[in-house]
UniProtKB/TrEMBL annotation, chain B:
Pfam family, one: ABC_tran
Alphabetical list of NCBIfam families matching this protein: CP_lyasePhnK
Keyword Cytoplasm among record annotations: no
Protein name: Phosphonate C-P lyase system protein PhnK
GO MF terms held by the record: lyase activity
Encoding gene (name): phnK
Alphabetically ordered keywords of this record: ATP-binding, Lyase, Nucleotide-binding
Domain of life of the source: Bacteria
Domain ABC transporter: 13-258
Native source organism of the sequence: Ancylobacter moscoviensis
Length: 245, 264
């Protein structure tokens, strides 16, 4: 993978990891007399291995919604979201729930803005879980989780505690570690540095750069200009996809 | 599992056009669904939506008015459950299935010791050696966080949360492939609920169980299930990935359900 990313020709020969075309989405709010809330229309772009692309545009332009559609968290009214999964290509907009679960397990990672806390599970186990799911022995998975949390400056005394009582920044670091610990060819990131201080933002920038070197394609929302300029190769303006129907 | 036919791509349980009428009243109608090995399916809806009737039909405790339920037997064949004899069905319930009920008193033998409650299921599948049964029972009590010195107490002396954990041990000790759960955390204090949910979550993934869980609590569905079925007035009105249905509900009734909870 590493050689490919240093050679753009090879990269495009392989084709995009993610290809979005003609995607449209409108929320229908039945509790508000069926009010229609258009989100995007005719959204289209491609994402290749080893590049990090930011979704840009003002709040409410639909960045987060688009990211959630790519992950299959929000449904799509029209268009295709093709994700390369090994030798297969999966259309997230149309595939079955079970295929989508497998795609998420093998290929597509998501770092959300907030950690969804699981009662009673300690931070170290929260972080190690995706690796254990990949079949890595528990001991090795836990060791790697510890290394990552140490890099993100999470005090070791917190590792065994469930993150429910952590501060926003501490929870976000647990969340980032969980999202980045396992290799996934496509990573979706929703403001991964929103509640972090400058030092930890730099750690995350370093982690994202490592992912890019490993050939991971990253699509994200990065409000922090400094972070965006450090890691992103280009910006897709989501307002281009707004309500043109 | 030594089963060459029932791969992950073959459903474990298939329901087709299931319906049940109670006289003129409709319990549920035209429900079709599939459950795959290792998959947790949540059935949600308000009281009276037909979700418990559906669970009764799927587990053959109720006889359908219409449709059928098939199950992938250990030999790989998909059997119409209505065609099984009573003995074969009983064996299935004791070995391959579990049923965790909302009220532990309905799923436990309240006058039998904790160890006996767990050991009984083992004896039903042919375990005979007392020492082995007791060791296995102690092991399972430990897995559901019941101290081994409580093995000879009967569940009447247990708290609600402990009783529910004992019911889970009793059901899982025979290593079933499919477990039905009817509001397993209903009526418990929030802290007790959290502990039980975490325990169920861990055991389900560790043992690779398929689970059909009926709950009115969307947070429980979010935490435990992969896929979700929303029921209203006896029908399935929306299905999909759990996070998709909860975060982007499409049907008016689902939108109402999701918007009515404080935090799901």
């Amino acid at each position: 993978m590493n050689e490919l990313t240093s050679e753009p020709m090879n990269r495009s020969l392989l084709g995009p990891i993610l290809s979005v075309s003609g995607v449209a989405k409108t929320f229908v709010l039945h509790l508000r007399e069926g009010a229609r809330l258009p989100v995007v229309n005719g959204a289209g772009f491609e994402l290749f291995a080893g590049e990090c692309v930011a979704l840009g545009g003002p709040s409410g332009a639909g960045k987060s919604s688009l990211l959630k559609m790519v992950y299959g968290n929000y449904r799509v009214d029209a268009g295709a979201i093709l994700v390369r999964d090994g030798a297969e290509t999966v259309d997230v907009a149309r595939t079955s729930p079970r295929r989508l679960i497998r795609l998420r397990e093998d290929t597509m990672g998501y770092v959300s803005q907030f950690l969804r806390v699981i009662p009673r599970v300690g931070a170290l186990d929260v972080v190690a879980e995706p690796l254990i799911g990949d079949g890595v022995p528990r001991e090795e998975a836990t060791a790697r989780a510890g290394e990552l949390l140490a890099r993100l400056n999470l005090p070791e005394r917190l590792w065994s505690l469930p993150p429910a009582t952590f501060s926003g920044g501490e929870q976000q670091r647990v969340n980032i570690a969980r999202g980045l610990i396992a290799h996934r060819p496509l990573l979706l990131m929703d403001e991964p540095t929103a509640s972090l201080d400058a030092a930890n933002r730099q750690v995350v920038v370093g982690l994202i750069e490592e992912k890019k070197r490993a050939g991971v394609a990253i699509l994200g929302i990065f409000h922090d200009t400094e972070v965006r300029e450090a890691v992103c190769d280009r910006v897709i303006d989501v307002t281009d996809f707004a309500q043109a129907a | 599992m030594t089963n060459p036919i029932a791969t992950d791509d073959a459903p474990l349980l298939v329901a087709e056009g299931l319906g049940k009428n109670y006289g003129a009243r409709i319990g549920c109608r035209d429900v079709s669904l599939e459950v795959y090995p290792g998959e947790v399916l949540a059935v949600v809806g308000e009281s009276g939506s037909g979700k418990s009737t559906l669970l009764g039909l799927l587990s053959t405790e109720l006889a359908p008015t219409a449709g059928c339920v098939s199950y992938r037997m250990r030999d790989g064949r998909l059997a119409d459950l209505a065609t099984l004899g009573p003995a074969e069905r009983r064996l299935l319930m004791r070995t391959d299935w579990g049923f965790v009920r909302q009220n532990p008193a309905d799923g436990l033998r309240m006058a039998v010791s904790a160890g006996g409650n767990v050991g009984e299921r083992l004896m039903a599948v042919g375990w005979r050696h007392y020492g082995n049964i007791r060791d296995e029972a102690i092991d399972w009590l430990g897995r559901v966080e019941i101290a081994s010195d409580r093995i000879d107490d009967d569940p009447r002396a247990f708290s609600g949360g402990m009783r529910q954990r004992l019911q889970i041990a009793r059901n899982l000790v025979t290593r079933p492939r499919l477990v039905f759960m009817d509001e397993p955390t209903g009526g418990l204090d929030v802290s007790v609920q959290a502990r039980l949910l975490d325990l169920i979550r861990g055991l389900v993934s560790e043992l690779g169980l398929a689970v059909i869980i009926v709950t009115h609590d969307l947070a429980v569905a979010r935490l435990l299930s992969h896929r979700m079925v929303v029921m209203r007035q006896g029908r399935v009105i929306e299905t999909g990935l759990t996070d998709q249905v909860l975060d982007d509900p499409r049907e008016p009734y689902t939108q109402l359900l999701v918007s009515s909870v404080l935090a799901a």
